[in-house]
Design goal:
alpha+beta; NADH Oxidase; three-stranded mixed β-sheet; 6 helices; 7 strands; about 20% strand
């Protein structure tokens, strides 16, 4: 399988919201969940479970249940027709297994998925602004599952670059459709060195 250097993967991981319509293989989607499976979990209690959505009809039904890019003007938020995600991973917590300290587990697992996606040349968007009630009904998710996030996936059809933080944390698009994401410098976030 395709493999990049670790540092390249870290710096290349950007949120992608526009996708080519080439399908992602089920094998790669399963591997992304396998990366999540081995992430650190508090007390090693493994309460996370996942749903893969890659069926065309189900993707179409799920698409309007997620909200896109709230920092952008409304006309730039949602992917245009023909640039939608080609797969989704739904992140669940099985509360019968674990119901405390799950946010740490979710963060570690999702980051593994996002970095694994970059390694495969796949773009991703980690989404928390989602309609959980409608997703629960659509995917027939039992009540003892806490629906945490949706990860939208596909091969990138846009570019996103890091730029130095100036006066705002808001990301923005230029006239060529390239996303610009301000990041603070390393020295500005190191509070102290002893």
């Amino acid at each position: 399988m395709f493999s990049m250097e670790f540092e390249e993967i870290i710096y290349k991981r950007r949120t992608i919201r526009r996708f080519r319509q080439d399908p992602i293989s089920l094998e790669k989607l399963r591997k992304l969940i396998d990366f999540a499976r081995v992430a650190p979990m508090a007390r090693n209690i493994q309460g996370l479970e996942f749903i893969i959505v890659y069926n065309a009809e189900m993707k179409k039904k799920l698409f309007p249940l997620v909200n896109w890019a709230q920092s952008l003007p409304e006309d730039q938020r949602t992917p245009e027709k023909g640039r939608e995600p080609t797969a989704y991973i739904i992140v669940l917590v099985n509360t019968k297994i674990k119901n405390a300290y799950v946010d740490f587990d979710v963060g570690a697992a999702v980051e593994n998925i996002l970095l694994g996606a970059v390694n495969f040349g796949i773009g991703s968007c980690w989404m928390g602004s989602i309609n959980r009630e409608k997703i629960r009904k659509l995917l027939e998710i039992p009540d003892h599952y806490d629906i945490k996030h949706v990860i939208s996936l596909g091969y990138p059809d846009e570019n996103s670059v890091i730029e130095p933080y100036k006066d705002s944390f808001n990301y923005w698009k230029d006239n060529n459709g390239q996303m610009h994401v301000p990041k603070r410098t390393l020295n500005s976030i190191i509070f102290k060195i002893f």
